[in-house]
Amino acid sequence: MKKYIYKCLVGLMMLFSLSSCDDYLTEVNPNEVTTGSFWKTLNDCEIGLVGTYNQFSDGNIMLLSDETNRSDLSFPGYGRPSPPTPNPAYLQIFNSGYNGVNKKWDALYKGIFRANQVIEGLEGIKSGMDTTEEDEQWKRIMAQARFFRGLFHFYLHNSYNKGSVIIYDFVPKSEEDFYQTLSSAEDVKAFYTADLEYALEHLPATLSGYAADGNTNLKNFKGRIIKGAAAAVLGKSYLYAGDYSTAAVYFKAIIDSGVYALADVSENSTTNGEFNSESILEVSYDANYKPEYDQYSPFGTTNNNANLIAAPQTGGWRGIYPSCWLIMTYRQDSIDINDPRNLVTEEDGSTRYRKFSLRTSHSIAVADDEDLLYYQRRPSVVSYFNNGETAYWRKNTNWDITDHEKNLAPPGRSGINYRVIRLADVYLMYAECLIEGGSNEAGVTEALMYINRVRQRAALQLLGATPAPEFAAADYDKKSYMSTDVMNHLMYVERPLELSAEGHAIRHLDLRRWGLKKQRLDELAAKTFYIGNYKTVDEKGKDISRDILFDVKSDAEATLDDPVKYPPKELFGFQQSAINYIENLHSYWPIPNSETTANPNVN
Length: 603
Description:
- Residues 1-22 form the signal peptide.
- The structure is a single chain.
- This protein has 24 helices and 11 strands.
- By secondary structure, it is mostly helical.
- It has a domain at 305-416 and 528-571.
């Protein structure tokens, strides 16, 4: 009987337990936010939009190291003439399993997922807009979400599989929803173009347009997307497709808007001048927030670009540094001798010209640049500049505000905003449109005008046989230019020097759309550079010698004590890259294996 009663009690307890569990499992937790309970107001959608902006700051989207290494701009790691470990991007041997290929894909689709959540949330409350003000705010939020969805698809289209990628225009609700097929490159382009056109129509022209959303402090809106960003991306899209006339319309609208102006040359690559008058699209970072996260965390507010690029003696890894031809072109960047910004006053009161242009000095550090400090000292005493490493990028490093990257607090976290699109880029793309890639002589004069605006900003010698009215007092190179000459200057001087180590894969995409990638690698593989000595003294007066680069052997020999016994070292690059590069295999990243193994509908 005791056993029977015990069994009955246990059975009743189990019954009540199952009943209460069932009730509990069907009860809504009032403390838990769900998709069903969250997307109810415009404020909810604003909060969701912040998550989309946050995903834009994921460094794997720009993928600075790999996108630069796969172009002709950089050399990976240390130890010229060969990197210590094979770099698949530089050597053009990457495949679908390459880490960068997978990380970029993942980061971009996360951004699309977040943007789609905001779009779906907005659609769910659309009928509840009671006032004109609410309706306009709804459109502004939608325009920002669709801008990012369009932008991320634009990046995917230009990065992967010849443009044939997956379109997501909804929020997946089940596992099967993730098994989407690849869309044609044409359909992807049409999709992101529609998103960007919607953004262009409904985004405010200036940040003041966001004040209508209830916050009149415009500082709170720094980094928000405005019309110029949508126009710039649309212009790039048509330019990449070779449609110069349509691209020119978008670029000219930006130029004529009056919203943007070229900034000082010192303001486009450090914390100084963030969101300046030239900035059109910029990724926001700040080292003052979330100090508990390191520079690698996707939840942080900083990046690790400074660690990646900086010289080893300044706390960096020099994971990439400028290729020889880029260093040499920077060294040869001609200054305007009529511009007082190029005059340096010595301690004895005498004056001389700067050895290197302002653009060169603010873009890279070389040992013999005595006119701009590098981490608060002369470059030659800060870094050894040895082992064939004759230059490091200043861009994206904190050379102007600290004496060592590790001395920043917290150490290793960089708050430098990443510049994606600047007015200078628009000027140079518009100049290319005016000459139609080198086939329109009628556009040469106007194209030179826009190129010269970029050059004059950095006190550079201007291009042209005779002075133009806009800069009549400047020094010109006194050369007559045909459209092909202008195009060559854009391809091999102006765009790489102005835009190196910034933007979204600018150099690689330029070389690919010009049809020059293979030719360029072959040319550089056949090129020889030479290391000479720069003799100076350190801060204690001790003689020191640093490596500097020459493209003429006799010039390098002139700096050596005994060039016969100790001839200048020779530097090469891109030999293996040129051999490995196959247009059909390496002009785009492949669909990553993380997608092909998980998605049965992607072959």
